[in-house]
Write a structure and sequence with these properties.
The protein is α/β, with parallel strands linked by helices. It has two domains: 130 residues, Glucose-6-phosphate isomerase like protein, domain 1 (Rossmann fold); 46 residues, Helix Hairpins. The protein is built from six helices and seven strands; from the N terminus they run E-E-H-E-H-E-H-H-E-H-E-E-H. The chain has a five-stranded parallel sheet, sandwiched between helices. A two-stranded antiparallel sheet has the order 1-2. Strand 1 and strand 2 form a beta hairpin. Helix 1 packs parallel to helix 6. It is globular, with a radius of gyration of 19 Å. Keywords: Plastid, Ribonucleoprotein, Ribosomal protein. It comes from Papaver somniferum.
Length: 215
């Protein structure tokens, strides 16, 4: 990260400066990643629900595949403002989405007049694009994992407003005090993001395997 863009609050997470670039302290990364893994393992072992959020083009597939592997909800397109803070509206959209999917599966959309069918199919496409990763959500998540603080600032602010615990990857231009656990990392390096997500998802999967639902 070029020096002019860095956040002074990131000083404790920086180990050196080389050729105008801040180098992240990987010991701190490992420490906070370990804390985050402990948190998600414990939450998953109690049946808690997660959302993984990452909408940059380079992480779209990574977010979806990791979320599906750990049976988490995810948002990998645009974060719709109010997705959490205006949950009643999100819930209404999800009901509409589920209804349209059911109608499509039964072939009923194709029996409608062409104009009506085309309009509903456009609605379904739009809902699938933005809500497809949270289509099974029935309430607010217990923990939100955010891949890029700058890119997903609105999502993080909604977590802060609602008091939902958050885990956030932060680069040197971020504020480490916003999320409950901030993991310093180069959020432009796909290998770094993949490694951190893999560890978090592994911890969630391990936690889920020890979850015993109440009967």
């Amino acid at each position: 990260m070029v020096l002019v863009k860095w956040n002074p609050r990131m000083v404790p997470y920086i180990s050196a400066k080389r050729k105008g670039i801040h180098i992240i302290n990987l010991t701190r990364t490992a420490r906070f990643l370990s804390e985050a893994c402990d948190l998600v393992f414990d939450a998953a072992s109690k049946g808690k629900q997660f959302i993984i959020v990452g909408t940059k083009n380079k992480v779209v597939d990574l977010v979806a595949s990791n979320a599906i592997r750990a049976r988490c909800h995810y948002v990998n397109k645009k974060w719709l403002g109010g997705m959490l803070t205006d949950w009643s509206t999100t819930e209404t959209r999800l009901h509409k989405f589920r209804d349209l999917r059911a109608e499509q599966k039964k072939g009923r959309l194709n029996r409608l007049p062409k104009r009506d069918a085309a309009m509903l199919k456009r609605q379904l496409y739009h809902l699938q694009t933005y809500l497809g990763g949270i289509k099974y959500m029935t309430g607010l998540p217990d923990i939100v994992i955010i891949v890029d603080q700058q890119e997903e600032y609105t999502a993080l602010q909604e977590c802060v407003t609602l008091g939902i615990p958050s885990i956030c990857l932060i680069d040197t231009n971020c504020d480490p005090n916003l999320a409950d656990i901030s993991i310093p990392a180069n959020d432009d390096a796909i290998a770094s993001i993949r490694s951190i997500l893999n560890k978090l998802v592994f911890a969630i999967c391990e936690g889920r395997s020890s979850y015993i639902p109440n009967h």
